[in-house]
Design a protein that fits this description.
- The protein has about 525 residues and is mostly helical.
- It contains 17 helices and no strands.
- Helix 1 packs across helix 12.
- The longest helix is centred in the first third of the chain and has 60 residues.
Length: about 525
C-alpha cells in the first residue's frame, strides 16, 4: 500500500456528508435549519456551562505557559531553527485564522450591542444608547474577539506542533491525544472518526463563511452601486473567490499563502490608518477603548461564567455560546496550519504570535472601527443600528464606509480586503483538510493538487447554490447550524485535548527531565 495514498476512511465520509448537507440545504433548507438549530438549542440549554469552562481553561493554560519555565520549550527540539521571519509568521498566523469575519464584525457587533438591536442588553438591564451601553458594546465585543477565543488557536497550535515536531507523530488530529491514550489514539478507526469530524466541521465552516463573503459582496454591490443581486452575480463572485484561494493553496504555503498573508496584513493596516485619519473620532476612540477595557475587566468574572442566567439568551445564546462553538469547530484543523509555522519557536513565542498579538490586533480593530461607528451612532451622523436591523449585519460596514471622505475609493478597497481575507483563510484550510485526507503525511507536507481542487470546487459550488437558491441571504444558515452542532461534538475532543496538553507539557516533560538527570548522574 502506498504510504501516501488517500485516507478513504476520512475523505469519503467527510466528503459525502458535506455534499449531502449541501443537497439537503438546497432542496429543503428549512429542514436543515430546524434539525441542527434544535441540536444547538439543546446544547445551549444543557452544555453552556461546559463551553464557558472550556474557554476559561484554555485562557488559564495560555497564561500559565506564558510565565512558566515550560514556555521555553522549543518546537522541533533545541537545535530547531525558524523557517519564517517574525512578521511573515505573524501575518500568516493572523490572516490564516480570522477570515473576513472581523472586517464586518468590527462595525456590526458593537452597534448591535449598543442599540440592543435584537434584545442583547435586556438581560443586564442596560438602556440602549446610554453611556454604559457604549462601554458594554465595546467591552463585550473585545471579550468575544480577543484573548478568550484566540486561546483556542494558541492551545491547539501548540498541542499539534509539539506532538508532530517533538514527538514525531503523523499529522492527524487524533495524534494530540497520544499523551493520554498512547498509540491507541492513532489506531485507524479512532483516528479516522476524529479526523472526519474535524474535517467536516472546517469544510462546512468554510462553506458558511464563503456564503457570508458572497452576502457581503452582493450587499455592497446592491446598496452602493445599485447592482441587482442575481444568481449570476453570486456565481461570478464565487468563481473569482474560489479561483483565488485555490491558486494560493496549489502554489503552497511558502508561495501563495505567504504572499496573500503579507498583502492582506498590509491592507488591514491601511484601512485602520484611513479610518483614524478620516473618521474624525480619534479622541473618542482612545477614550472609549481604554474605558471599555476597564469595563470588560470589571465584568470579566461574570461574563466568563454566565451561561445565560443573567445575560439572557439574546446575548449569551445567540452571540457568546454560538461564537464559542464556531471557534471550537475551526480550532483543531486551523491549529494544524498554525502549528506548521511554529517550527524552531519556543512555546512562549508561539503563544505571543498566535494568542497575544492577534488579540491586540482585534482590540485595535474593534477600537478604531467600532469606536468610530459608535461615535457616529450616538451623535446622529448615521443610524447604523437601523441599517443593520432592516438589512442585516452585512449592510453595516458599507453604510459606515459611505460616510467617510473618498468613500468611492475606500469601498472597493474594503471589498478587496474582504476578498483577500477570506481567500487567505480558505486556502490554508483547504491545504490542511486535504493533507488530513492523505495517509502518512507529516506536518507541513502538501496533499496532491487533485484533492485540493476537489475540496475547493465543492466548497465553492455549495456556497453559491445555498446562497443563490436556498432562502436568499439565509441560505447558508442550515450549514452554519450544522457547523455549530458538530462543534458541540468536538467539545468532547477539546476537553480531552486540554487534559492531554497539560499532561504532555507539565508532567511528561518533567518526567523526561528527571529521567535525563538520573541517567546523566
Amino acid at each position: 500500500m502506498n504510504k501516501h495514498s488517500l485516507r478513504k476512511s476520512v475523505f469519503f465520509p467527510a466528503f459525502a456528508v458535506v455534499l449531502g448537507a449541501g443537497i439537503v440545504g438546497l432542496v429543503n433548507n428549512q429542514l436543515l435549519i430546524n434539525c441542527f438549530q434544535s441540536a444547538f438549542e439543546w446544547a445551549y440549554a444543557n452544555m453552556s456551562w461546559l463551553y464557558q469552562l472550556i474557554m476559561l481553561a484554555l485562557f488559564v493554560i495560555c497564561c500559565v505557559l506564558m510565565v512558566s519555565s515550560k514556555g521555553s520549550i522549543r518546537i522541533g527540539g533545541e537545535n530547531a531553527k525558524p523557517k519564517y521571519g517574525f512578521w511573515t509568521w505573524f501575518a500568516m498566523s493572523l490572516t490564516g485564522g480570522i477570515g473576513a469575519s472581523i472586517v464586518s464584525s468590527g462595525i456590526a457587533q458593537p452597534i448591535t450591542f449598543l442599540q440592543s438591536v435584537w434584545g442583547e442588553l435586556e438581560g443586564y438591564g442596560i438602556e440602549p444608547g446610554s453611556t454604559e451601553a457604549v462601554l458594554f458594546a465595546m467591552g463585550r465585543s473585545l471579550h468575544e474577539w480577543t484573548f478568550f477565543p484566540y486561546a483556542f488557536y494558541g492551545v491547539c497550535g501548540i498541542s499539534i506542533a509539539y506532538v508532530c515536531f517533538n514527538k514525531k507523530k503523523p499529522v492527524t488530529i487524533s495524534s494530540t491525544l497520544t499523551p493520554l491514550f498512547g498509540d491507541r489514539a492513532t489506531k485507524p478507526a479512532i483516528s479516522a472518526v476524529i479526523d472526519v469530524v474535524a474535517v467536516l466541521a472546517l469544510a462546512l465552516a468554510i462553506v458558511g463563511t464563503l456564503g457570508t463573503f458572497i452576502g457581503l459582496a452582493t450587499t455592497c454591490l446592491s446598496s452602493v452601486y445599485n447592482v441587482q443581486t442575481t444568481p449570476y452575480l453570486m456565481f461570478l463572485i464565487m468563481l473569482v473567490t474560489t479561483a483565488l484561494y485555490l491558486l494560493s493553496s496549489l502554489s503552497g504555503v511558502d508561495k501563495g499563502i505567504k504572499f496573500f498573508a503579507r498583502l492582506n496584513f498590509r491592507f488591514y493596516m491601511l484601512m485602520l490608518v484611513i479610518v483614524v485619519l478620516l473618521g474624525g473620532s480619534l479622541v473618542f476612540i482612545l477614550n472609549t477603548t481604554t474605558s471599555s477595557i476597564g469595563y470588560w475587566l470589571q465584568n470579566l468574572p461574570l461574563w466568563a461564567f454566565d451561561t445565560g442566567t443573567v445575560g439572557g439568551p439574546n446575548l449569551v445564546k445567540w452571540w457568546t455560546i454560538y461564537n464559542w462553538i464556531f471557534w471550537m469547530a475551526f480550532a483543531p484543523v486551523t491549529g494544524v496550519f498554525l502549528a506548521q509555522l511554529t517550527y524552531g519557536r519556543t512555546i512562549r513565542e508561539v503563544l505571543f504570535v498566535n494568542w497575544i498579538m492577534p488579540s491586540l490586533f482585534a482590540i485595535v480593530w474593534f477600537g478604531i472601527f467600532g469606536g468610530c461607528a459608535i461615535n457616529w451612532q450616538i451623535n446622529g451622523v448615521v443610524d447604523l443600528a437601523a441599517v443593520i436591523s432592516q438589512n442585516g449585519t452585512y449592510a453595516g460596514i458599507w453604510q459606515f464606509l459611505q460616510q467617510l471622505p473618498l468613500s468611492q475609493l475606500l469601498i472597493p478597497i474594503m471589498l478587496f480586503v474582504m476578498l483577500i481575507s477570506f481567500s487567505t483563510s480558505a486556502d490554508n484550510s483547504i491545504t490542511v483538510i486535504s493533507a488530513l485526507c492523505m495517509r502518512g503525511k507529516r506536518i507541513g507536507d502538501e496533499a496532491p493538487a487533485r484533492i485540493k481542487i476537489i475540496w475547493g470546487l465543492v466548497i465553492g459550488l455549495l456556497s453559491f447554490l445555498l446562497m443563490a437558491y436556498a432562502s436568499g441571504s439565509k441560505g447558508n444558515d442550515g450549514v452554519r447550524y450544522m457547523v455549530v452542532a458538530i462543534g458541540c461534538v468536538l467539545s468532547i475532543f477539546i476537553v480531552l485535548q486540554i487534559i492531554s496538553v497539560v499532561k504532555m507539557i507539565f508532567f511528561d516533560t518533567r518526567k523526561q527531565e528527571r529521567d535525563e538527570s538520573c541517567s546523566g548522574s
